[in-house]
Task: structure prediction
Amino acid sequence: MTISENWLIRETAFDPERLHHKETVFTIGNGYLGTRGAFEEGYPGATPATLIHGVWDDAPLFFTELANAPDWLPFVLTVDGERFGLDRGEVLCYERVLDMRAGTLRREVRWRSPAGREVDVSIERFASLADEHVLAIRYRVTPLNGPAKIELRAGLDAYTDNWGLRHIEWLAQGSSDPQYLWMHSRTLKTNIELAYAAHLAVDDISGVEYHFWDADGRPTSVAHFTLSQGQTATAAKLITIYTSRDTDDPLAAAQAKLERAVEAGYARLREAHIAAWADEWAQCNVTIEGDDAADRALRYSLFQLLIAAPRHDDRVSIGAKTLSGFGYRGHVFWDTEVFILPFFTYTRPEIARNLLLYRYHTLPGAHQNAGAEGYEGAYYAWESAETGVETTPKWWPHPDGSLVRIWTGDIELHIISDIAYAVDQYWRVTGDDDFMRDYGAEIILDTAAFWGSRVEYNAEADRYEVTDVIGPDEWHDHVDNNVYTNRMIRYHLGLAFEVLDWLDEHAPEKGAELRRRLDLSHERLARWRDIEAKIKINYDPETGLMEQFDGYFDLRDVDIADYEPRTQAMDTLLRESGIDPNDTQLLKQPDVIMLLCLLADAYDDRTRRANWDYYAPRTDHRYGSSLGPTFHAILACRLGMPEVAYEHFMHAAGADLEDSRGNAAEGIHGASCGGMWQAAVLGFAGLRVTPDGYRVEPHLPRHWKRLCFAFRHRGQPVEAVVENNKLGGGEKSA
Ligand code: IFM
Result:
C-alpha cells in the first residue's frame, strides 16, 4: 500500500554537517523513552542518546538531568572483514525515512567498501507503542558483487554520556546462550537501576554461528555467516528495558519480557506497534488539505509530542526538549502546560491528566520553594525535575568562559498561574470533575496561597503590585508589574473562588478538607478578593494598549529593520553594539500577545488590534524565542489575518525540520510543536469550548482547502471538518 508522503520525513542524502540536527529530527520513542536518530553502526562525533522518563541523575550547575541511558542501538556489520560505516568506503545510495503513521525509522544504503565490496543495507527500528519496554531493530544485508562473509554484532553499550558527563555505572552482564544477553547498570548518584536484555536472530540462513562477546559494559551477540551474491539475510535484534522505577527486580522483568518478545518475533511485534499507532492517530490526527508542507510539518510536531508523552507514569512530565536531546537537561518548564498540554487535553485527556498529576505530585517541592523564599503555599519551579524543587541553574557557562547569572529560577513566577490555567482548561474541555475534586482544586488553591503572600500592597496607591519579576519575555529582567504576570494572577484568584464555590456545591467534604488543610481562613480569602480587585494591570482603557511592565514605553525604541539582514538574535546584536536589551523595547517573546490568546474572551478586537500593532513589530520572530510564532499565528487568526498567521505557523514549522534557529541539535522544540497544534485547531479552525458546548470560527489561509481534526469534548469523540470558502475565512461544513 502506498503511503502519502505527508506521513513521511525523508532524507535522501547523508550530510555529515547536519549529523546532530538529523539525530534530533529522527528521534523515535514511545512515551517511556526517546532515542535520537544516531546510526546503529556509529559515526565519528555522533551523539547517540536514549532518555528514559524519570531517570534523573545529579549534574553540576544544572542540579539534575535526564541521564543518557545505555545505548540499545549498536548493530555493526562487517563484510569480508571490512566494517560498514558512512564515514568510510562510498555511499552509492542513501535514504532515511521516518514513517510517522507506523512509528518506524528506516534507512536504506547502498555501500561500496574501501576494497570494492558492494552491499545493500536496510535497517528499520522502532520503540514499541504497544509495549513500552520493547524495542526492535531489523537488519537486512545483501551482497551485490559476489559472495561475502558477513559478521553482525548486536550489542548494548553502557558507556554513554551527556555531552561528556557520565551518569551510568556498569554493574554486570551475561549471556545464557550466545543469542541472548543482558546488562545491568545504574545511575551514578541517584542509584536508579537499568536492566536491558537483548536477543539476536538471523532468519533462514543456513550455517549461522553465534557467539557472545563479553567486553565489560558492551555485551554483544555476534553472528557469522556467508551470503551468495544477491542473497538477503534478515536479522532481528529485540531489546527489552526496565528500570528500578518500574519494578524491584528490573533485570528479571527485562528477561521475562524478552522471552515473550522473542516468542512473538519481529513481525508480530511490529504489527502490534503499528496497530497502536493507528489507534493513536485516529484520536488526534490533523489533516491540512491543500498544503503538503504544512500538513507534514504539523503531523511531525504531533508525532514528536506523542513519542514523548508518558502513558503509564504520572510522576514525570515532558521536558522543553522532549526526550530528544540534552538541551535544558530534560527539565520541565511552562512549555508543557501552556504550549504542549492543550493538544493532549483535547485529544488524549488521559495523557494530559498524567502531565497534570506530575504537578500534583510535585506540590511538596513547590512548598519547599515557597518556604525557602519565605512565602506561603506552592511555588512551582521555573525548571522542574523529579521533585519539583527549583532546578534552574543559577549560572550559565558563556562560550567566552565566564559564568552568566540566570535569574529565571529566582523571579520568573508566571509559571505558577500558567499551571492553574492548564488545570482549568483541562477541566472545562474534559469535564473531568473527579480530577478537579481530587487534585486540580488543590493545585489551584495552594498556588493561589503563594500569590496571597507574594503580592505587595502599595498603601499610597491602594493597590497590589508584583515587583522584581521576569515575564515570559526574558530579555527584560527585574521588572515591576509585568502585565502578563499580574493579569494571570487576577485570573488565578478568580478561578480559586470559582473552584471553592464548585467544591462547596459538588464536593463539600473535599472543600472543607482543603479549607482546613490549606488554612483558607476568612482573612486569607478576603485578602485574595482584595488582590483580585486591586492588582495593578497596565492597561489603558482609552487606547486598549497594555504596557508590558512599568516603564516599558519609555525604553529605547529600536527598529529591527536597521539590523537586517542578520543571522543572529537581536539581543546578541544589541549587546555587540553596546546596548543592553533590557533598555530597549525589543522582545524575545510577546507577553501581551500571549495574554490575549490565553484569556481570549476577556478582550475585544480593538484591544487585540492595538496590542498586535504595537508588539508584533517589536518582537524578534526569527531568532527570539521559539515559543513566540505559534501564538502570533493564533492571534493573527483571531484578528482575521490568516495569511499573516500562516507565515508565523510555517516559521514555527521550520524550527526542528529545517533547523531554522540553528539549535535543533539540542533537541525538539516541544513548545513550538504544541503551539503548532493550537495554531491549527484553536487558531485557523478557531475551535472554542464554551459552557454550552463548542463551536468553530475558522480563518483558513486562502490556499488551504480543508482542515480536518479529531478531538474529544467532555469524553465524546468529535471529527471536525472545516472547509475553506476561498475568501480567506473558512466554514465548518461538517
Ligand atoms: O520556557 C522557555 C522560555 O519561555 C524561553 N526560554 C526557553 C524556555 C524553554 O523552552
The CA atoms of residues 238 and 265 lie 8 Å apart.
